[in-house]
Amino acid sequence: MRRTLAASAIYTAKRCSIHNALHIRSSALDAQVGNCISNRQALRHYHPSHICARAKGKSSRNRAPIKRDIGWLQKELSKGNVPEYATNPYRSGAAKKTAGGVRVVLDELKWPLDADIDERFAKRIRAVRLAKFRRSDDARKRCAYFGISEKQFSEWSHRFSEAVLEEQIERMQPNFLIPLLIRSRVEGLDNYIVNQFFAYLEDSAPQLVKNIKYLREITDLRFPQEWAPGARKIQRRIIMHVGPTNSGKTYHALQRLQNTTLGVYCSPLRLLAHEVYSRMMSAGITCGLITGEDRRFPDYEALGINPKGYSSMGNPLTQIIACTIEMLPMQNYNVAVIDEIQMISDPARGWAWTGALLGLNAREIHLCGEPSAVPLVKQICGMLDEEVEVREYTRLGELEVSKQSLEGDWKNIRNGDCVVVFSRQEIYAIKNTIEEKTGMKCAVIYGGLPPESRVQQAELFNDPDSEYGVLVASDAVGMGINLSINRVVFTTLRKFDGESVRPISVSQVRQIGGRAGRFNSRAKRGLVTTMEAQDIRTLAQSMAKTPPQLQAAGLKPTAAMIEMFSHQFPRVPFEQLWSMFRDICNVEDHYFLCSFRDQEEVAKVIEDLPLSVGERFHLIYAPVNPSNPTLRTCLHKFASAIAHKQACQIRDVIRLPSEPPKSRVGIQVLENWHRAISLYMWLSFHYTSFFPQIEEAQKIKAECEASIQTGLAGLRTT
Description:
Elements: H1 7-10, H2 18-21, H3 26-31, H4 40-44, H5 48-54, H6 60-79, E1 95-97, E2 103-105, H7 119-135, H8 137-144, H9 150-165, H10 174-204, H11 212-218, H12 229-232, E3 237-242, H13 249-257, E4 263-267, H14 270-282, E5 287-290, E6 295-296, H15 300-303, E7 320-324, E8 332-338, H16 350-359, E9 361-369, H17 374-383, E10 388-392, E11 398-401, E12 417-420, H18 424-438, E13 441-445, H19 451-462, E14 468-473, E15 487-490, E16 494-496, E17 501-503, H20 506-513, E18 525-530, H21 536-544, E19 553-555, H22 559-568, H23 574-584, E20 591-593, H24 597-605, H25 613-619, H26 629-643, H27 664-686, H28 694-713
Parallel strand pairs: 3-9, 3-10, 4-7, 4-8, 5-7, 8-9, 11-18, 12-14, 12-15, 13-14, 15-18, 19-20
Antiparallel strand pairs: 1-2, 5-6, 16-17
């Protein structure tokens, strides 16, 4: 493997010698995303020839690039382009053995809060990632897919980097990169650099890629408003309800919804959709529920009334539909409500909010969420000649940020506390520690827990007469369930995001912290604090800051686009096709292409099956975690049924343990089976003939949820 001397290798850590940093392979650097403080003065005194001499075991042929890179680094250092931020660090003082056999001492992560990312930081991290791009085997491979040779890549990546650093490419200037770094961090920047490299080639060297202009044309995502011609034919009224957590913004939008004759509520979570469904039905309003795993409609025969009609999907028309936003039925409405509109900038799911905002055929659309979304929504709607009315709300009830932490003492936990943890493994350990130290029982809520189990745990915590006085939860507590929390206690303000440890965003800290002291709950005043003293200052800063304004909305390509693109590369595997589309597509400044990470992994799982492009496109957006071995196996079996046109019997795939779980591992096994059951149910609504046992699936699902609840009640750390 080619050795890397990119800027990020030089700036690995304060305590790492310059000599050893030169030995780090590019693959190791990819895993070390982040930032450490550099020793600038040390680099200034290292002569390139001296550094080359220290590159052990390198031939003269391999030392030549070393000298060029060091010269380039010194040149950039003199310009102030080289960052003080290098790469990853999971914890201070940790030692890591790289692929090249070099032990590097890692420093603590220094990535700033999202509200503090500025042009200076963007300029510096840009220089590091550009250097990494020029030496990246992955970037070379991705360019080779389009016929670019090693020699051509070396020449034109150098020209591209020089043009970027001389600020000749507008969309690579620091101010353009700030929203990207806030949203997607280094992974997003690396993909963006490759994409902009192809945009640069289209103008400067179109001969390098066959039909590049046509490829950029058929992957053009700049005008997503044209994908919904029906919505463009009516004049829509857009009303934004914005404010902090617990301000009543969604309540006011729902008041308008329940007074209409035909409306829809679009939810980020199945729990919220179910809550609205139950609320409407209790008020005597006919309501349908549509989520990935569930379809519920009123029993009109029992009610003694007839439905108003039927939709194009054959479902009875109800006064209201409550749905998860990805399952939004595109039909005519009088009033629509889109909840958590700030998720329009979510790196993975933002496309669903963008699609709803652009495509809803409703005369009145209510958007609920954070004030940070207002400028972006106004910009998008302005391009559609639609005016936006903004209604601002203030918090109902007091919220105070404590000046003191709990000093790391679990005995300071008290009744009504919600302890926020960002690791599922730690949730159970902390639950048992609190129970041992305080004698109070703890309910638990986290993303991997089935929604039904989360509701049951919330009810235990909310019930003042139950023994469960404390809630231990992940960031999943930030939205979805009404909780009577007196005090939110953060165990940390950092989270591993799959690549590196990063600070929790200002928006997320404020949203989670705002759950304390919910209006009309037992808590009259909310309090927010931390477990450790070292985090209390950061908490105060985050709660006081205004989240950065959103700058772009997420998109995903249409099935027709992928179909057309696949015709240009008929022998390319589907998962590779996705990365190629991402690299060469053309996106307008106010939009971005959502992450394909999970979709590419799902495509790999089903690559060997004889599926059409349309079937593959549909399956890669199935609700499944492709990194989970159990789900990968189930997904392949389910997809095989589609490929071979065979009916899939659910009990041939799903086999629940005969006994309730007695350990954390046992609960996790059931959680995986629950996700597999939900996947079967999702498929049953899209491929009914191949997944006919929806009632049996619901029965097994209920058994699984009951077993999980039994396990949670008696769980102890193993």
